[in-house]
Structure formats: structure tokens, C-alpha cells
Design a protein that fits this description.
Elements (H helix, E strand, L loop, with lengths): L1 H31 L8 E3 L1 H18 L3 E5 L7 E3 L1 H17 L6 E7 L6 E7 L6 H7 L20 H11 L3 E7 L3 E8 L5
Parallel strand pairs: 2-4
Antiparallel strand pairs: 1-3, 4-5, 5-7, 6-7
């Protein structure tokens, strides 16, 4: 019966959403208590990026959002916790997909500087944010209110968790955004394998 199938899908989606909220709260509790332990090892980021993209590709396709990668030249290895870095990527990419209109693109590339050996850049063509909205989005449970964002489910925990996880890795996360143009999230990784 199609009606029962719709009910079952609604229950399933609600359960997954609740599980994500509980997971986010537990992660934040560990981070705030200083009990988050990282399993640091040399990591080849292209493999982690590929794994994260496999997990969110169906969402991107459902919203008709294209993800363009440019990982040339070869990226240097970093020292990090693969599971946590994948969590960061999934959160940032999921947000980019959620807030990008259909038939637009997300671009992902990397760069380096004298100060930062590797910066991963994720740029969307979404609704964008003002400086005040960026500040709200970076606070725990902070959700930017707009006609578009009210249609989107979320807890307001994904971005703060990503910021804390980047800091735990000895790196940082920065955001540049323009209303109606899009958002650029930069993940600055400072640790290299010895």
C-alpha cells in the first residue's frame, strides 16, 4: 500500500534524523569535556574525500547538484583521524548540497601556502550568508532563519562540531560567504606526517 510506504519512509527519516541529533550531542559533549581522542595517522586526503562523496552523492543527485573536484597537483599527506575528517567533510558537503539550488554546482579543490601546508576549499553556489548569519551558524544550536532555511531540517550542531574537530586536529575552519552568491568553507590542515 503506497500510503503505508509513505508512513514507513517518514518514520525511517525521523529515526535517522533523531540518531544524527543524538550523535552530534554526544560528539559535542566529548569535545567540550576534553575527552575526544583522535587516532592520528598519515592520511591521503583524496581517499577520504572519495569515501565522503560516495556517502553524499545520492543527496546531491536527488537535488540535481553537481560536485566538481580538482585535486591536482597531488596533495601532500596530513596527520589526522580519518573517521573524524570524513565526518567534517560529510557535514560541510551536506550543508553545501542542502543550501544549493538545483542545477548548480559545488566545487572542491586544495591549495597551500607558507603558513598552511594544505587547505581544502569547498565552495557552493547556494543561498549564502551575511557576516551576522555566519556568526550564528558557527554557534551551537545556531540556525540561520530564512524562508529557504526553514524548509531544511537541521540541529545547528554540524558546523560547530566541524570547527571543534578542525581545532582538535591543530587546524582551523574559515568561512566566506555572500548572500545570493554562495559560501566558501576552507579547512586549514597544519599537521604533516614526520
Amino acid at each position: 500500500n503506497p500510503l503505508y510506504q509513505e508512513y514507513a519512509e517518514g518514520i525511517h527519516d525521523s529515526g535517522r534524523h533523531l540518531l544524527q541529533i543524538i550523535g552530534d550531542i554526544l560528539d559535542l559533549s566529548k569535545i567540550e569535556a576534553g575527552e575526544l581522542s583522535l587516532d592520528l595517522e598519515p592520511i591521503e586526503l583524496p581517499n577520504v574525500i572519495d569515501s565522503a562523496l560516495r556517502m553524499i552523492r545520492a543527496r546531491a543527485e536527488a537535488r540535481q547538484v553537481t560536485i566538481n573536484l580538482d585535486l591536482t597537483p597531488a596533495m601532500p599527506a596530513i596527520l589526522g583521524d580519518e573517521l573524524r575528517i570524513k565526518q567534517i567533510l560529510i557535514n560541510i558537503l551536506s550543508n553545501a548540497i542542502k543550501f544549493t539550488e538545483p542545477n548548480r554546482a559545488i566545487h572542491l579543490w586544495w591549495e597551500s601556502s607558507a603558513d598552511t601546508p594544505l587547505t581544502l576549499v569547498i565552495e557552493d553556489q547556494g543561498i549564502g550568508m551575511s557576516p551576522e548569519e555566519i556568526e550564528i551558524a558557527c554557534t551551537m544550536f545556531g540556525q540561520v532563519q530564512s524562508a529557504f532555511s526553514r524548509k531544511i531540517q537541521g540541529t545547528g550542531l554540524g558546523l560547530p562540531i566541524c570547527i571543534k574537530l578542525m581545532e582538535a586536529h591543530g587546524g582551523s575552519l574559515s568561512i566566506q560567504s555572500q548572500k545570493g552568491i554562495g559560501t566558501q568553507v576552507r579547512l586549514h590542515f597544519n599537521r604533516r606526517p614526520i
